[in-house]
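User: Predict the complex.
Assistant: Input components as received:
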Amino acid sequence: MIQTDILIIGAGPCGLFTVFEAGLLKLRCHLIDALPQPGGQLTEIYPKKPIYDIPGYPSVLAGELVDNLMKQISPFEPGFTLGERAETIEKTPEGQFLVTTNRGTAHVAPVVAIAGGLGSFEPRKPPIPTIADFEDKGVEYIIRDPELYRNKRVVIAGGGDSALDWAVYLADMTTELTLVHRRQEFRGALDSVEKVHTLAEQGKIRLLTDAQVVDLSGDEALRSVTIRHKTEGDQVVDTDHFVPLFGLTPKLGPIGNWGLEIEKNAILVNTTDYMTNIPGIYAIGDVNTYSGKLKLILCGFHEATLMVQSAYKRVHPGKKVSFKYTTVTGVEGFQDQAV
Amino acid sequence: MIHLTIIDRSGEEHELEAPTDMNLNIMELCKAADLPVKGTCGGMALCSTCHVYVLSAHQLPEMSEDEEDMLDQAFFVESNSRLGCQIQLTENLDGLKLQLAPETVD
């Protein structure tokens, strides 16, 4: 059981900056994120793209901004539960919130701040009608343990780095490896593309381009896939596994069922302290909405700052926050404080 | 102002007027007209929620590598597929006819 003052759902820029503002008020934070690393969209989708509207930075790469935020919050020693998705929330008898992840990790805090951005990132599933029937019966969207595929027949679909890299990796250990891609060009790293072509020439990868998987069949397990070529029609390929690798897409997910007021896929908050309709649960950053909302990182930072002021009163009822400038007080981390 | 026709996912045609001097793209136009286009990534060609089919024979700007790459991860991709966010509204697009691609439900 993890106990903290503010439990932050989502370790994107807003969630991370919350740790700093909370830390100035001597509140401790713990973050949960479905991705295996902090940074949210910035790290997962566009780490190398520049952002031009962070005050004081004429230009900063998204990945650099995350690195800087991590450095900025380090004095406040945030805890992280990464690679797990916040699944359920309930009230404890003491009036705190108990948030449990999909892997069963339990977190307790008097305040929950949802900084979930666009939602948790999950694999894009191809719209093949029967695909759900074969999930974990031959269809996997993520490769967790490559050993699962040793001496098996595998069909991989996709044209990005992960499809190419896994095709190269698995080519030697599978009995048959087919790579299906919708066009002839690949967007992956040049080096991986060349490797795939070399392995295809050596007969270690069956490369089917201008093609896509359109149907699956089997009984208790997957037996074959139907692959449709742009001009040459359908062919059935017998296989033990089908691994579609089409990247990740964000979904609001379980948070949508927490009893929060939702409007157009975002959580409705008031603009005094960014509290939701449930007292003690706040929502900040891209995940919230209110009149005049702009989905900007800098607005999320502002929301986080005001939110922790309100959160303080919930964590320490009756106590007053004394507002101080960091220029006057400096940044006193938890390490420096006398216990 | 230019005139566009957009067919939504239930097959209904929407006749839209759009200014060409506001630096708008197709995704933004659809959102402004309350058509069910999410535009999740905000126009960075990173999510494919603004995937459309181009039905008229207009000369469109060429596809960038980013757009091609994103379409690789999208579904229901056809030879006339484009990402709405990558098409700026310009005078020569008057009369453009588009259809919203199906959404992936999962």
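Strands of chain B lie at 2-7, 13-18, 51-54, 81-83, 97-100.
Let me know if you want any component modeled separately.
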